[in-house]
Design a protein that fits this description.
Elements lengths: L2 H20 L12 E7 L18 H8 L2 E3 L2 E2 L5 H10 L18 E2 L7 H7 L3 E5 L19 E4 L30 E5 L2 E6 L2 H4 L2 H15 L5 E6 L20 H23 L6 E7 L26 H4 L3 E4 L8 E3 L3 E2 L3 H9 L14 H4 L10 E6 L3 E7 L2 E4 L2 E3 L20 E3 L2 E4 L15 H18 E2 L4 E2 L7 E2 L2
Helix pairs in contact: 6-7
Cofactor: Ca(2+)
EC number: 3.1.6.8
Family: Belongs to the sulfatase family.
Length: 490
């Protein structure tokens, strides 16, 4: 090749390179904040998923979720009853701090105070689309409904699915009955604040899981191009339970197993929607429960997995629940976390993940993101307070040590459970004495060791006193310094 040809070719290549160098550089794209999906079960026990030991049915989608993320074994609901637990989840506070206790009935004059900041409000301020599909139970008056608490849209029941004028077997309650439910309205399935339809029969209830799932998937499809928060609090397996025709009779554990198989299907539909929309890698999926199983309902109740007692009780069966978190590429696949954690920790963790500020009012939750990233040396939470009823301090915890304080409470032990939707007895005024348990070797809370470890007993009694000073305690007639009022209407 002649030198002139080589020279000309060189000039041409240099010109092309220079032209590209003169083009304006493209700004690096900012990472889209992760989507958040929070699935919250009602009365699901610690032993109710096959990855937690359930028998006679399988939950393959949830097992897969656990295999791709983190499965927590020491995760506590904030309180073992519906409304209180939900207030805690959404605000990151012990429910008695924000004035919510028990389970609110239809037309209650109280609800979650609009001045409290919910997860939905934090994320909405960050530009997230926010949707809720399922049970609310934080006040059914218009002032308290989800669209007043940070959610752009809502479809679901305003309270528990047993708060209707229907008997345990699905028959209408007689007008001559003294049952307090006789004056309840039929269950309103709400869209924002309007009633879509009334849920009047068990066949109507059998459609709820499908309705919530369809609405959640539709929301994901509509908001796939911007960050979103989906809160999916299922109405079941809280009694009464019912499965759709597709799942009825499918399990070896009767209706309860059928219901759990349908819930598992629902999780599968959510995960499929994420994958089909290319959102699989940028979505945090959290699955947990509001409290343990309602054991006196027998074969229509779940399993505490060998833990003591169940719903409505401060022993571990009432508050230790399944929790699975999956965030592809962040949570190590198949990790089991035994660290003490709680539903009140989800708000500050989500705030950190999504880059939002914490609420202006003090909260009780701690950031557990280091655990989600696989740092099992981290110990973000060491202490926990077990409150029940309006404001009874029934136990305190430090790591694996739990001090049960003298109190009266519900007990299922020694009582024959009910069957096929009818409850057995669960007396409410059983006295529980002072007792110290080492949950590391005694998760069933059977062996009182306070005489063996007097120094641990003394330490936890100081923790209890700190809890009373902060939040109060009806048992010892103490008023807390830092409690806030619920919302209230005239």
């Amino acid at each position: 090749m002649k030198k002139t040809t080589i020279f000309a070719l060189s000039i041409f290549v240099i010109s092309i390179i220079s032209a590209f160098q003169l083009l304006p550089s493209k700004e690096p794209s900012k990472a889209t904040p992760p989507n958040i999906i929070l699935i919250f079960m009602d009365d699901l026990g610690y032993g109710d998923l096959s990855c937690y030991g359930a028998l006679q049915y399988r939950t393959p989608n949830l097992d897969r979720l656990a295999g791709e993320g983190i499965r927590f074994t020491n995760f506590l609901a904030a309180q073992a009853v519906c409304s209180a637990s939900r207030a805690a989840l959404l605000t990151g506070c012990y429910p008695n701090r924000v004035g919510i206790s028990g389970a609110l009935f239809p037309n209650a004059k109280v609800g979650l105070n609009p001045e409290e900041t919910t997860i939905a409000e934090l994320l909405k301020d960050k530009g997230y689309a926010t949707g809720m599909f399922g049970k609310w139970h934080l006040g059914d008056r218009p002032e308290f409904l989800p669209t007043r608490q940070g959610f752009d849209e809502y479809v679901g029941l305003p309270y528990s699915n047993d708060m209707w004028p229907v008997h345990y077997d699905g028959s209408p309650i007689s007008t001559t009955s003294d049952n307090r439910k006789k004056n309840f309205p039929f269950l309103p399935l709400l869209h924002n604040s309007d009633t879509l339809q009334e849920i009047k029969t068990l066949d109507d209830q059998a459609k709820l899981t499908g309705i919530y799932t369809e609405r959640a998937v539709n929301f994901i499809n509509r908001h796939k191009k911007s960050p979103f928060f989906v809160y999916l609090p299922h109405s079941m397996p809280h009694v009464p339970i019912a499965a759709s025709a597709k799942f009825k009779g499918k399990s070896k554990q009767g209706t309860y197993g059928d219901v759990l198989m349908e819930i598992d299907w629902s999780v599968g539909e959510i995960m499929k929607a994420l994958k089909e929309n290319g959102l699989d890698k940028n979505t945090v999926v959290i699955f947990t429960s509001d409290n343990g199983p309602w054991l006196n309902y027998g074969n229509h109740a779940g399993s505490s997995g060998g833990l003591r007692e169940g719903k409505g009780n401060s022993f571990e069966g009432g508050q230790r629940v399944p929790c699975i978190v999956r965030w592809k590429g962040i949570t190590p696949a198949g990790l089991v976390c035994n660290k003490l954690t709680s539903t009140i920790d989800l708000l500050p963790t989500i705030a950190h993940i999504c880059g939002t500020k914490l609420p202006a009012r003090p909260i009780d939750g701690v950031d557990i993101l280091p655990l989600l990233k696989g740092d099992m040396e981290a110990t973000p939470r060491r202490y926990f307070y077990y409150f029940y009823r309006r404001n009874n301090l029934e136990a305190v915890r430090r790591d694996d040590w739990k001090l049960v304080l003298p109190h009266e409470g519900r007990s299922y032990e020694g009582q024959a459970p009910g069957n096929d939707g009818f409850p057995g007895k669960a007396p409410e005024n059983i006295p529980f004495p002072l007792a110290l348990y080492d949950l590391r070797r005694d998760p069933a809370e059977r062996y009182d060791v306070k005489e063996t470890y007097p120094e641990i007993l003394a330490e936890l009694q100081k923790v209890a006193e700190e809890a009373r000073e902060d939040l109060g305690d009806d048992i010892t007639k103490r008023t807390g310094k830092n409690v806030r009022k619920s919302g209230m209407v005239q």
